User: Fold these one by one.
Assistant:
Number 1:
Amino acid sequence: MAKYLLLKHYRGAPASVNNVPMDQWTPEEFDAHVQYMRDFAARLQETGEFVDTLALVPDGAWVRYDGEGRPPVTDGPFAETKDLIAGWMIIDVESWDRAVQLAGELSAAPGAGGKTIHEWLEVRPLLTEPATILE
Amino acid sequence: VNDSLLRELVPAVIGVLVRRGADFAAAEDAVQEALIRALGTWPDDPPRDPKAWLITVAWRKFLDAARAEASRRGRDHAIQREPPADPTLDADDTLWLYFLCAHPSLPQASAVALTLRAVGGLTTRQVAAAYLLPEATMAQRISRAKRRISGLPLDQPGDLGTVLRVLYLVFNEGYSGDVELAAEAIRLTRQLIALSGEPEIAGLLALMLLHHARRASRTGPAGRLVPLGEQNRSLWDTSMIAEGVTILQAALARDRLGEYQAQAAIAALHADAQRFSETDWGQIVEWYDELLLFTDSPIVWLNRAVAIGEADGARAGLAALAELNPELPRYAAVSAYLHEQAGDLEHAAELYAEASRAATSVPERDHLTREAARVRQLLRP
């Protein structure tokens, strides 16, 4: 088994096919979307492939060390940062192909007009622990 | 195993070990180990006297640990094999435990964790699950908290304010694992009332009951958040509401108002309305004014603006809101609601969308996004 991160972006991903902002859907379309996401996570829990999911608040700040005895420097939030992560799901699956298949299903969530969003999700393998027998 | 019966015994058993000379940290560890063993063995082999069983096993665990510690230090301390007879236990032991676990020197999250474990009798695993933390992290948090309070003089009167704050947080925050924290907070507050007659304890219990009575109506399909105005009031637990109101009235009659009694009074006025439109908003505004004598919480100021909007019209609510700092959390959400009530749908939709971006939980974010969608739909021709 290997873990993969399915990364969802507020900004920075290629445009979806059905690219209408959420607050311009109808409430029913919104409900259908939320239900789809919940069902997806529940299904992965049943198959034993679900690890974790979290969502992020859009605003944050850049922080860096500024030398001994000085408080850290903060900067931002930068409204124009070109890439902005919205949240993720971590799955533990048999293969890359399975990860891609599941990302495809997640991307099929319904949006405006009840039509599939075709949202671009980023799939990234997580580094693992080394195996005991390496040679 | 009757889990809650088992857990009710925990503070008393810790009390017994401490009276026999164990320090709090060691006693608490020993009881926790006994508790885990009880959960494992009692289903197949229930003891005749659960409390005596817990005391015996916990005391043995304590002796084992103390001996291991003594030999580690290379000293040959003779450790008392036979426990002294137990002095009579009184309510003060349990009350002392509440004060200790919610000691003002502890960070709030640590006080919450320690209270749930030592007073509530939850296992570290259960506490960790309730806060979505790894068990090792929660174990560390609890042991650091115990180290921090060890060596504190124990003869000083405790701080009831921090105890109530901790119980309030248990009720208000956390997730549902196999233990429902809200119900656990109610149980611990009930137990506290039996130990001390302070009216604020009753105020807090009433507040909890009045909110807990509405829990079935607070979420809709797919975990959707249902705001007070749209809740199906027939789902409210009327006997729990009645109990909350009775407790509150008795507390108020003692004429020593505090913030929990004032909050409970507001909750009681909501619970009293058969329909949202029958809510007595005038009285609710008055209670918010009382509440502000005890707290300067921004949430109270924002809720007061909403109440004024309901009592005197959305424009009055917006005027009250205009006196507050727009940087406050949830300001945009309140502003959105009042603008919608005032008929300014365009602005309301924008504010709901803005509020959703600042939301601090997924259900709240989803609710506000959905509100933006709902208002935008009203705007479409």
Number 2:
Amino acid sequence: MSAGTKLLILAVLQGLVLTGMVARHQWTLATGQPVVLAIRPIDPRSLFQGDYVELAYEIGRLRLDRLAGDDDFVEGETVYVELQPGTQAWQPTGVWSRRPIATTGAALRGRIEWVGQQDCEAGVPPCRIAAVHYGIENYFIPEGTGARFETLPAGSRIDVRVAVDRNGTPAIAAILFDGEPKIEEGLF
Amino acid sequence: LFRLYYRRRLAQDLSRWIERGWIDPAHRDAILIDAAGTPATGGATPFLLAGLGVVLFAVGALLLLAANWQELPRVAKFATVLAALWGAYGAAFAAMRSASPRLAEALLLLGVLLFGLGILLVGQIYHLPADAPQGVLLWASGAMAAAWLWPSELAAILALLLAALWSTLTVDQAGWLVHWPFLPVWAVMTPVILYRRWYGAGHVGLLTLAWWIVLALGTLQADTDASAGDVLRLGIAVAAGFVQLPGLVPVRSAAMPFAVTAERYGLIGLVAGLSVLLVPRLYAGEAAMTDPLWPGVTATVLVAALPGAIRSALYRRDALAAGAAGLAALVLAAALLPTERAWAAAAMLNVALVAGLIGLIVQGYRRDDRFLVNLGFVFFALTLMRLYADTFWLLFDRALFFLVGGVLVIGLGWALERRRRRLLDSLGRPA
């Protein structure tokens, strides 16, 4: 095999990997189950990645005593959070070590960051909280426009619509301001 | 510089060997020409400039990533990423065609760097779920493909560094105790490094493996009931295992230079680990074993290292491997002593360490291996300084240790000198 052919193989392989990443994402957006998640945004800066907002999802902190499923999780473990439609955003109903088979809602895959005790309500014993990372916490935005995520009028809310594929992998589909999509994801 | 030094040294040695009648004077010039090697096809400057250019371009690409490309639509951004990637490989092909192999390899490395930046950029453009370890592994795979296909030592080095980064990130995020998947990924690069005799990549490979071991030992101590002493003893046994490698590899095989390098890293790890273990404050609380599991694991590692020690001692008359295994076994045995005998264990290990370092220096002279001699002297000096300031002992104990040790070492030197003189006498040469 000539050196030129080897280079061509390398270039095509690496190009296919990058294209595959985009194609898989678009496939999830096109075929995944749409789920609306409530968030509380802040605006940190990243030296290497331009401006982005850090999306703190409400389902990022789970009260294990109020959810069905398993509760003996350890740091770094993969979990599946079962979600059901709520009035404005979807709500967690269970958290499992393995993907639940017959779920009527959606099962979102995440990774346990930590599990600990917290005072959840006055006068009752501390409850167990699991912090879960879903990999969709960072959202890149045009430079200098992050402020609009923080300076919303009182009473406004921001939600994120994600598409969840069969494996529970989420992909951000749209940013919703007061239920209306203001930023939508797509190929172009 | 090293090559120049080697040629000067060889010229001096050849004159002496010719004088002693070991070498035919007619072969002197031929040997020197061979040692000089084939003339280089070009200077180092173009390669250096190409390398600097690669760094500048990569930094520029990184800044482009930070600028977030507001003006371009997504597909155009993605097309730019692909164009940059393929452009780099195209330029590498053109440089290769114009007989500039070094420039071509630098451009190939640029392509591999752009592939990694492309992964980051695609993740940013399309808001892909963030999974840093997976992204780094994907990048490492691209670098491995480049290293194998071209073949490129620079890409191999980058692949190994990325594999180590992947393992570090995975242990940090996913809670692995020992991240075993690193080993097969690391091993993918081994055949091409051995076959091509890439010594630079060999060093990086061993360093990344050493890093993985240190990471695993640190995680074991943090996340299990293993004490610092348990983990250090296990690390010492693993380091002693590395010292056995030259004994397990055929002398003329391509792997032998790498086995010798592994032996050196193993020696550094062994002596450094034992020196840390013998730090008084640590040793006072870590001498005795905690859970029998850890001495058991350590003993298993040592048993696995035995064949190398036996082969080296019996067939190659080299006691270094056996000495290293013996020292590690002594460390393990000292852990079995009850806590109230910690002082006895520490005394025994200090004596064994000093004796081992003297043995290392002697072995270095026997092999004519400057690295071993220098390593032995450096650690010998450091150990003496540590013992001088060691508060674990009373002043009288320390004085006794140095006095007796000094007399013994002088006696050893005298015995070795007598032996040397006898050997020279038997050869009929003046001492």
Number 3:
Amino acid sequence: MPTALVNNTPVELGPTEQLNCIQAAQRIGFEIPHYCWHPALSVVASCRMCLVEVGDKKPDGTIVMRPKLEPGCQTPVKDGMVIIADSPKVKAAQAATLEYLLLNHPLDCPTCDQAGECGLQDYSYKYGRGYSRLQEPKNIKPDKDHIGDQITLFTDRCIMCTRCVRFTREVSGTAELMVTDRGTNEEIDVFPGEPCNNKLAGNVVDLCPVGALCSKDFLYKQRVWWLKTTKSVCPNCSTGCSVEVDQNEDRVHRLTPRVNPQAQGHFMCDEGRFGWKYIHSDQRITFPEARDVSGEGIGRVLSRGWDEILPAVVQSLKKRASVHPKKIGAILSPWMTVEEAYLLAGFMLKVSPKAKLALGPVRIEGEDDKYPKDIHGAAIEPAKFTIRAEKAPNRRGVEAVLKSFTESPMTYGDMLAQVAAGEIDALYVVGGDPAGWCSEEDAAKLAAVPLLIVQDLLHSPVSGKAAFLLSGGAFAERDGTFINHAGLAQEIRRSVRGPDGSRPDNRILWDLCGRTGLYQGASLRREIAKKIPALAALAAGTLGDIGVKLMASEPQPAS
Amino acid sequence: MPTFEPVLLARINKPDSTSLASYRADGGYGAFTKCLGEAPESIIETVKSAGLRGRGGAGFPCGVKWTFLPKNHPGPIYLAVNADESEPGTFNNRILMEKDPHQLIEGIAIACKAIGSHKAFLYLRYEYGTSYRVLDAAVNECYAAGLLGKNIQGSGFDLDIVLHRGAAAYICGEETGLIESLEGKRAWPRIKPPFPAIEGLFRKPTIVNNVETLCCVTHIISRGVDWFKSMGVPPDPTNPRDLGSFGPKLYCISGHVEKPGCVELPLGVTARELIDEHAGGVWKGRKAKAVVPGGISMGFLSAAELDTPLDFAGPGKVGCLGLGTAAVVVVDDQTSMVDVLYNCCRFMSHESCGQCTPCREGTSWMTRILDRIRHGQGRSEDLDLLVEVAESMGIIPGTTICGLSDGAAWPVKNAIKKFRSDFEEYIAAGNKTVTSAQELMAAH
């Protein structure tokens, strides 16, 4: 097996593996500092931060060191190669490069959003020198608020790594960003009147290793060291991008993409990035409600206590089931987790083995939006990023559960037709789509059901018509599993607590099922894996950071 | 060699030197016609054995460069002619293009025949308007006369020459910067490998040659290898890496001399000979303090080093970077080296493309330090700082993609090493070249 030597530690390379020095060093946990290199972008080798000493193995077996330092990002690692990344020569080059990068930098860390997660701060601390020898005034460049609707540029903090420029050329293909001027006067800019507003634009903020490109949405909201990070999954389309949810004091402040080669790669779209605001919406259902839906006091709230409402839900359903066992139904939302769908389906069938189960509305918007684009806006193959038209995170997971419980799950339309035909006496509806899943028309139909139970997180036309309204949780408040378009099962994890009177859906359903103790995702997944062959891959319990593919035929990732 | 007769510049003073008729009357396009019937390999072999080294600055052997092209490539292969002559003090290409365009076109045609290229791009710096008009007329004449175009003189060889005017930037003279610029992009030099001969213009194999190099090719073909090797400096037998410096070379002499101009001499003439015999000596009867051997990025010769032969190896032996473009700039003894060096640094800072961190920031930092010294604010430790900055910018630590950074650092290293006392005296005496606005206001 080909082997290279990094700082005297052997690194084994796969037979066909092509690594650069930075990646080879990462194998042994050694960081070669770099700015311009990014695994998803082309190599420009311009920041000169990753310079290392390189020695090649000659045919006679001797190692000949190259006279110059080589950029680690640009140097492919070959069998027998020697890479020295911690010699005095390398350290001197790193210190010199950092001094150059900081020459004109404003050093405004106290007011900079990036402070705490900044490449300049971290590397200066590790590899730089303690003071600047610049005696002259710094080169001050104007800030550019016009770069994009969601992006602002602090030009003087920029180190010209051009990651953002390459992203817009290579991944989004929209090429809004460019370099203007020359030498030390260089700046990142856009053409006048052509701001960087493509649907992937927010990624340039993550790509920026310093505090130059900042998100207007997050600007001056939080110091990053206050944020607590949870690994989760973006629920806004069926791509299921791996994300990190950053929160402080139960308020989500931002979503950032998390590298997952099995899901989306390195990036995420702006729909997902900024699409979490409903978590803190004033339209949230903040308490469960039991309402009088017949007689004189119609609309009157009878109770707002979980302890009273949940037993009442069970009892009312059982009462209806004992009269007309076939007239019981449930609509499961594609926004539910696999576990929630499993609990609800199991609960409904326990109440009435003849209960009807349907999949809720799956919102489809246009067509899959693929990137990069060419200059005419047409997608270029192979696609590097896809924003899917299916705007629900877990249709596949909920469908798999439904199919295991009923021969033929009904559609939303079927269920509405059953309701209209008077075939349903009691209906348990789960919402969850923050963009609204229920029209006034549908709500009017559903209102005809004598016992309507609605579990949702935002008020909708139907929420006011329910006998029992259960206040559920958003994706950031729940634990569970989403299965994306390609059959990748990933865990979402609770990062914030919802409004006081709300409960995560998994807990509501756990309690309805009469299970004791607290909801336990991992053990429930093991149970599901045993019961549902299609979901056997969940047997691991914990799915790791990059998830588990459902199809056994596909190689399982090492997590 | 007192009997040396100019070859490259032989026709420049003739009336009507730019016309095809006059060029043909002097035997022009004979070499090309001869080459049309020859195998490409034999042309390459001739140029290679002549030991022709590139005249653009780096001195890479031209014939060897041609052999780097992939064998049996389906094409297209391109020739890019580097006429982006932008090293300060250099104007030899301009004279060749303005006064004898057909000599260059013949060289291009021979080179294209040798490397199997059917399209040559001539990248001309924007400021050379006259060159453009002269070349444009000459190329049109050639098309009309069947010397360019399809099936030239019935040989089956096709060739088109495209004149391209750059937008005026020093970095476009770097071969991969030139290629990027030709492709319509920002002239950021590419990382190598791949070298242009493997993957160049439009990702096709490309040879980049300087104007003067191609003019020499014409004469190597018509006059032969022996003629070419009869002048210049043979390789140093004790140094196996020395390739020798053969052939005639155009030297541009400017600065503080009585008669600045461009002269053609065999390689290896000394700086002193150039100044005294070909440029009328240092002006106003003064002495030379420093001489730039070949464009400012090559560094400086001190007054004691004026007998250095200006061949490809000579300047390197006294601490300069090389011969460069053989643009000799003379600085007289009444000039402050602080100002000279500031001027060099300001140029490089303005022309740094800004891609690599050390060059982008280092050139500007050195300029700012020197400007501060010029304002009378110098500190003795500034000299060591300048040297340290210059050393961390160079190619030898491997810090940049192209050679501009090294060329920007070299004059600083040279000047402070060779003229350190000048700087120290300037700083110690509190001299200043520039009086700040505040001081002017206070004085009046």
Number 4:
Amino acid sequence: MSETMKAFRCWSTADVRRTVYSDIGALSIDADAVFLAAHTPMSIKHAKGGALAPGLSGEQQVLSALVEDFGDSERNTLVAVTGGSGAGKSHIIRWVHAHLRAADDRYRILYVPRAIQTLRELLRRLVTELPGVDGSDFMKRIDAAVGNISEEQLADKLLEEMRYALTWQIEEQSSGSGESDEERGRREDRNNLLGERDENGKRRDGLADLLALPELNRWLLRKEGLLREVARTSQTESSRRDRQHDRFTVDDLPLQKAQFAKEARSRAGLRDIHNLIVEFPDPALDLLGDALEVAVPRAFGTRSAEGDTLESLFRRSREALRAEGLELVLLFEDLAQFGLIDGELYDQFVIQPGDELAPLRVAYAVTTGHGRIPKTVLGRITHEFEVDDSALRDRPVFLARYLNLVRVGRENIDAARAAAGPDSTDWIPNACDTREDGSPCRFRSECHAGFGTVEVGGLGRVGLFPYNDHALQRALDGPQARPPGVPVTPRRLLETVVQAELVRADTHLAAGDYPYPEIKNRFDWQQELPEESLIGSRQGPEAERLLRALVLWGAERPLPPQIVEAFGLPVGPKPAGPVVPPPPPGRRPPPPQVPPSSKEQTPLAQLAPWGGGKELPNVDVDRYRTMLRDMLTARVQLDQDLYYTERGEGREVLNSLLSVKSFDIKGGYGRVAASVNRPFEIEQSRENARFLFGAYWWYIHGHWKTDEGRWDWPTDGYQVGEVMAEVEARFDDWAEQIRQRFKEKVKGRGPARAALGVRAIALRALGVPPTDLDGVAAVLRHSDAIPEQREVQDWEPVHLAARAVLRRAPARDYANQFAAVRQGTAANPQLYAIAELGSALREAAESPSAFLRATAADYQDAAPLVALAAKELLTALDTGALDRLAAAKDLTTKLADGLAQSDPVTIADAAEKVGQRAARENMFRPADGWPTFRQQADRLRDLRPGLLADLTGRSAGNPVDELLELRPYLKEVMSGVQALRYLKKCLEDTAAQAVRQSRVHGDPGQLAQVAREDLSRVEEFMRILVDGGTA
Amino acid sequence: MTDVLPAWITVAEAAVKQASDVAGTRDRIAVLGKLQEVLDRLLGDLPALAEAAALGNGSWWIGVTAPPSLWADLRKLQQTADTPNENTVQRFERELRDLLNQQVRVRLLERWAAHVREVIGEMPEAAKALKELGGAGTRIGNLATDLDREVRRFQSVGKRLPTEADVHALRVATETFDQIERELPAGVRDFVIAATRPEGASLDLFDGARDWLAEQTLLGSVRVRFGTGAERAP
């Protein structure tokens, strides 16, 4: 490695803060790109509603449920997404919003994100986005009601409206049929709390009068009370997202306050209800809640005897939409936002379209147990989906999306989304492949090899750095991510494993002290081996850091050199311990001699019982899988087949075929990922226990000297020769299998051939003439820094895709790795497999479109980057190919017309001659254009003789192929057309100027005659005036 | 390939050629235009000066001396009127304008004023005295009133160029004065003229006028005042 990973980070703390939002409410409405880039497809339970199309992900089901009734004007659709706090409900609604087309002519969308937190803004959003109505008067009323008064005043206004409601508006409840004793008791208590009506109908000695008592009045208006919170919510930002009930609680009554009791008891009429409240507060709290519901719309101005109300605005909007045959889609990220104004909303949900109103398609998220949804609404829910922790089923994938997002960064993710357009599905860049101006990260190979990767659908392999498999698991199981007694939610994992840890890692990697000491309290710290066997006799902070890395990243096994380097761990001359460089193929360096007295426990202590059917401890499973991976990797030796697997794509292909997950040790933890094809299964048996023991002996010791091991060689049934032969045979067999799989996967020299052919096509698409691409070496050595030919218009998408090919599918690397002869493990090849590569170039030249198509289809596994790049280039070429072709031909025609069958040099000379004379006579136009005119004349002279002849008659039968045939000449043609256009325009303007200058106003002879006469008159006068009148 | 050039080149070529050809004409017209402008300006000023000079030609106006170069430039311009030289045009205007403003105009005003003063002489005082002496309605009084009106026109002489009307007024004043002289006996005329002078008329002269004054019942209009003869008459 010429550059070192030490202190390297592929993210910054600022990136973390700008891209990771554990609470979607904090994510701004226009941040769809960030949202979608981090979104993990969810599986959710369809708790209610008719069957939907099979095979849909969770959010796709919600979208499908929402749109399934489009066109049915008879009924509304109500889709509820429920789940615990932090489960991802709002994510689903937002995803639905991001995938509904705003421009669809069947419906209009009203979307209320959770980011809106004040009631005032919520109302403003509703009325301004309700289609077809003008809610400005309504909002003026709201602003007037809550805009210019203090929070204290608004709370008091609420309280007075509550008193008014209790005095005049809230009716007593009458008994219903089948009323239980308890229900009857509550009803009677409630009615008693209202008080008695006097002769004018005003209630006296009830809750309304109690609310006027100074102590209760003050208590209800205290800062932390519900009324103040409601007032606050209407005016300033205040997160109420987890508050499930805007209801009064017993804390809202000063039941323990002596002053309250004193005031209540001082009035005979109130003494009884005070007693009632003290003993049974619930009816009073319910009644206060009912009063608040009546009071809020009055205090906030949402209901008024005059002017618009939410109900009237909704109705008018629905009427207007119905008249246009449109439907209204309502998307609410959090129904709890609506709090005390939800009544108006629920009314709309239950009002069916009939003949006059547009049908509603509503999708809303609400926390399970939100108790305010009325039964009338619950009964009309068309579909209900329950979100559990499905996002957490594959936690590494879930987290890897965020790791990638953080690395890509906010600007880049926004730009990628903007460039891809709303319909694109595979627009999210993989930072590992693109983070260096579209080129792969310089450390990708090393990093992926050392820290490991996660395969993420649509993204490819995402590096786990700064985690590896083991560290990530330890982080996920740590007390921060999984505190005792608290359910694990995606939000919690994001906050701890991504947000907090990446920020810490950023700081500590930079400072060179990662993993930092506190990490033991954040991760699941389980150390089985004694410190001495891990770090030898080392001591001090660096030794402790090494220990943390060994336990949390290394599973108490040797750390891969990439981790050692990235963390800058102390690996110099060491006293003892397992931190060692990677072993040579199939061998490890001899360990330090260990005196017999310090012999460790033999691995057979666990392996033997495992062979007999017992479970193998997790730490041992990790240990043996790592060992098997390392030993087999060293044994494969693909370089003999001209495949280079030390790093780069070859290494990644090998990693995809051979990892710790490739070994399925039965009777041990750790499922083999579904993506692992044909794992090596190791059944529980005495023989396999012996094999693992032998392999591990060799792995640790690098010799078969049974008396020089760190533990005792068993005596019973463990003949060294047999064990050795068994180990060798097994690894030879596996290595051969891996070699075959590798060749199958890479399709022989396929990746190199594909990458080379695609590169040649990309170079042609960028305008490189075929003469510069003659042969393998020419194509490989051609510079990637091709100046942008801006004069070739409408080719930007093709140029972008072509440049992406050069960056993302580096043919030199593929040729080096899959079709080159080299010495040892050196990266630089000595010879290429020219015959195979040359044939690929010929195929690519013969029919570029067919070559790209075949590459895109055939190399998705073997060379996914090449396949993807080929697909994107073909798509870019294909899209608008006919238009582009027509434009290219039009350009050729223009050049031919401009030259008028003359040759460019003749035209340029003649034009320059005329221009020169005009410039001399000050009639050249534009007046300052002469230097440019000469440059353009030179451009015209530079046109290749015979260019037009070369262009005419070309027809490849396929627009893309024909375009690529024309492409190398387009710049020159365009240059000629532009030069001609400029020369022509200048000479036309100059001719016009010359004509203007040719016009003469007046006859010089006549003018001279007049002058003569006037001179004579002057002379006459002069003669009168001068001496004697003579000269 | 052919050597036939596209029309946009040949058209431009022809237009440029034609424009180049007319450029000289355009320059000639431009200089002629400038000459004409100069001549227009000069001919705007010269007539008034010449008219004034013509009124005094042969009497009070004898002309100024023009520099030879001015005449030379005039000749040159007249000879090359088809292709005048712009520098000559400018120089001619500058020198002629200097001559007109600094000499002709100044001299005209000075000489006219001197001529007027010479002609009028003591007419204003005589007119005043005879107006007083003759009184309204008398022949002499009427003539004196006419004379007074005519000579008043020349109170601001020397501030503007003379006109035909000025010359006419001067002639009328002279004729009126001559008529008054003819109407008055010689003794009376001498007395009146002397009386208008600062030292006044002596009693000797009064004797020659007394009879005529008595005859004209004008004796009451005369007051005798004793003095040294050096003081100004009231």
